[in-house]
Amino acid sequence: MVRTNKVVRFFQTKPVFATLIVLILSGFISAALFYSFRSNDPGPGNQPTFTVKQGPLTISVTESGTLKAREQVIIKNEVEGKSTILWLIPEGAHVKKGDLLVELEVSQLLDKKVDQQIKVQNDQASFINARENLKVVKNQAQSDTDMAKLTLDLANMDLKKYIEGEYPNELKEAEAKITLAKEELTRAEEQLKWSKTLFQEKYLSQTELQADELAAKKKALDLELAKNNLDLLKNFTYQRNLAQFKSDVKQAQMALERAKSKAKAGLVQTEADLKAKKSEFERQENKLTKIEKQIEKSKIYAPADGIAIYASSANRGGRRGREEPLAEGQEVRERQELIHLPTGTSVKAEIDIHESSLKKVSVGLPVKVTVDALPGKIFTGRIIKIAPLPDAQSMWMNPDLKVYTTEIYLDGNSSFLRTGMSCRAEIIIEEYQDALYIPIQAVLRIGGAATVYVLEGKNFGPRKVEAGLNNNRMVQIVNGLQTGEKVLLTPPLAAASVESSKSEAVQKGPSEKKTGPAVPSGMSSGGRETMGEKVKKGKKEKKL
């Protein structure tokens, strides 16, 4: 222990010497590894091979997933905003229709309800006042219109009365006065004539004669006055009264139009005010109803019989897989899934298929499903649905990862299976009873063609083959190989690199000059394997 402390103190006090020592040791270790791998470099005779086999071959795609109930009711939080869970039914509990599942805290909604009730009462009073005011305005408008119409009717009657009644009477009266004045003048003149005769014969006195002369003059003046009154009636009084009565009729007509317009405007304004008050009252009443419904939705009841499963347990993958487990006191948002309530015994498996395997998989393919909780049991099913688009949650976590959610319906009654169990689904793409196959790592793509290195004599030579489907372990060989032939499990990747370089050079054309010699992947400029390639190759050989 003391020596160790001294060594540590030495490295801490003299970092330059410590660095030199580390570099020297690293050099020795690198040299030792180089010579070790060089001495163990396998020759052509002892490289790993695989004998081409013929027999049953199953092409399948295996993915992990989760079990879910095929028939279930998803219960969500319908309270707006965020709410806190006051009470929550234990997970896995058997519930009956109408049982309480979740109770949310709604104290703020209760306060809102009281305030909203006050608003509703005030708006209801305003609405009733506006409705009664409309009745008053209608009555007043009808009264003003009737009064203006009556005034117009009276004005028309006065005009007609004057033209057809008063004026003819006045005209006849004036003419009668002229006639009477003429008769009286005639009588006065005859009386004056007799008075003059009697005065000459000394039967009348001078005074009586003068009285008769005065009476005759008065009657003449009365006749002239009567004629003047008739002219005045025809030329002035009649015209003035006629104009006055016609003006009264016109003013009454205008007053009637004003009364109608005023009544209409007042009625429209009052109806608009009533409509606004009614709309506001209904709006506030709807808000109150909405708050009451929100309070009702704070208690969530089971819509059917089933087993209560928390949504945080049933959901899988993406952000949903990292959700906090549902518990009392937790804050939940609107439209958040709270509980999944299975209503049947049918089960389905949900898996994510990578886009590279999507071409192999189709709806209707058979599937073998194993459940981690039930080792040794195999369930069968079929693919029912493949999502048309990649899973958004997975893309959000890793934009380069595109998987498609696939649903598999399990056959038979699986009542003993539980939602949320982990499972593994093997999708059977094809089953061959008699097929040639080799490991998939033995096949290279050279120039776009499948190529394997076959042992011919003492050396391995490339041979083009026709490859079929693969299950990520074995690949079917349709043509090009025979049973018993040996193929190289570690084909030279440099050959594929050289072939790719040649094909690129051909595509570029002779006009483009090469900047340097083509160096295959994993090789140095001198054609020898790099140290890193030897290390990797040695590790592979040790594993084999």
The backbone outline, from C-alpha atoms, is rod-shaped
Low-confidence stretches: 1-8, 31-43, 317-321, 505-544
What class do helices, strands and sheet pairing give?
alpha+beta
Record field, number of beta strands: 22
Mind telling me the CATH class of the domain at 109-297?
A: Mainly Alpha
Distance between the termini: 42 Å
Put simply, the count of helices is 8
| Order of helix and strand elements from N to C terminus | HHEEEEEEHHEEEHEEEEEHEEEEEEEEHH
The whole-angstrom Rg is 59 Å
For the record, the CATH architecture of the domain at 109-297 stands as Orthogonal Bundle
Please tell me about this protein's structure.
The chain is an alpha+beta fold. The chain contains 8 helices and 22 strands. Among the domains are: 1-39, no CATH class; 109-297, Helix Hairpins, CATH 1.10.287. The chain is 48% helix and 26% strand. Strands 2-12-15-14-13-16 form a 6-stranded antiparallel β-barrel. Strands 7-6-4-10 form a 4-stranded antiparallel β-sheet. Strand 17 (444-446) and strand 18 form a beta hairpin. The longest helix is centred in the first third of the chain and has 94 residues, at 107-200. It is rod-shaped. Mean pLDDT is 81; it is low at 1-8, 31-43, 317-321 and 505-544.
